[in-house]
Amino acid sequence: MAFPTQVRLVEVGPRDGLQNEAEPIATATKLELIDRLGAAGLTHIEAASFVSPKWVPQMADHREVMTGLKRRPGVVYSALTPNLKGLEAALACGTKEVAVFGAASEAFSQKNINCSVAESLERFAPVLARAQEAGVRVRGYVSCVLGCPYEGEIAPAKVAEVSKALLDMGCYEISLGDTIGVGTPLKAKRMLEAVAREVPMAKLAAHFHDTYGQAIANLYAVLEEGVAVIDSSVAGLGGCPYAKGASGNVASEDVVYLLNGLGIESGIDLDKLAATGTWITQAIGRPNRAKVGVALAAK
Ligand code: HMG
Ligand code: MG
């Protein structure tokens, strides 16, 4: 395979990046973050999560976020919806794209969404059907594709099986989550090869957390295989509340720098993106985990 000529970035900072923050973040700050990301050229922004506020308190203002954001033409603002209750709430706010999230690990599925993998697929089926009826696209996540905090090693065949089930259900894209950032490049390639036998490469996205500092190397490996959609988080914000010790997603700034170096088009203004990373980390009192962001700010 060859590198893609163009890559679409899915910015998950406002959701994955912020969901784990213990201190409440003002809705106005989230809205400004989303707006700045749009101004930097991101065309797909995961803005909120319609999950239980008891489980993830930081996402409790999902309604205010989805109704308050300034919609820019050509930008998709999506939200997580684990069940019909979440989907109905998202639809009521005018959400045009949603995502369901499953896992390749039974133990993680139980901890994260309180049901088995099979039960999760049963729950997603009516979400897909209702979304289709409403003309809303659904993205499917698979967590723990390169390892699980509870089960350890995960078989690529299991990742492929869950990915295929989500595709068959109607998800337009499958995002492969290295939830705890334990993967390494060859492992990422092998996992991808197994999944790509069941799901066309054009429908796959890489969602790599950077816990062990391997995310950029892993992305290079899967880009070489033809993956053309990458999830990332400005300033490398984030972590999953049900994956202890997991750090943020790969930083969007670092991904854009990598793509620029490879001559791959992303349509993103790196300076604006880096300024957004500097701003949000100062606003919420977090270190900037984008190496490129820190380097550009020091110039
Ligand atoms: P449950 O307890 O099994 O569900 O939770 P339930 O149907 O029995 O409902 C229990 C309570 O939750 C009820 O309220 C429901 O109304 C409420 P009560 O009667 O106790 O007051 N409830 C809801 N409230 C708001 N919105 C909803 C909703 N559904 C039920 N949609 C549930 C099941 C999935 C809701 C729960 O487990 C949950 O919210 N989990 C949160 C999971 C989460 O957000 N995890 C982080 C995101 S996933 C991630 O980060 C990984 C990813 O980035 C990829 C990667 O990195 O690998 C995507
Ligand atoms: Mg994630």
From TrEMBL:
InterPro entries: Aldolase_TIM, HMG_CoA_lyase_AS, HMGL, PYR_CT. Its EC number is 4.1.3.4. One of its GO terms (biological process) is L-leucine catabolic process. It comes from the Bacteria. It is an enzyme of class 4 (lyase). It holds the Pfam family HMGL-like. Gene3D superfamilies: Aldolase class I (3.20.20.70). It catalyses: (3S)-3-hydroxy-3-methylglutaryl-CoA = acetoacetate + acetyl-CoA. This is hydroxymethylglutaryl-CoA lyase. The lineage of its organism: Bacteria, Pseudomonadati, Pseudomonadota, Gammaproteobacteria, Oceanospirillales. The gene is liuE.
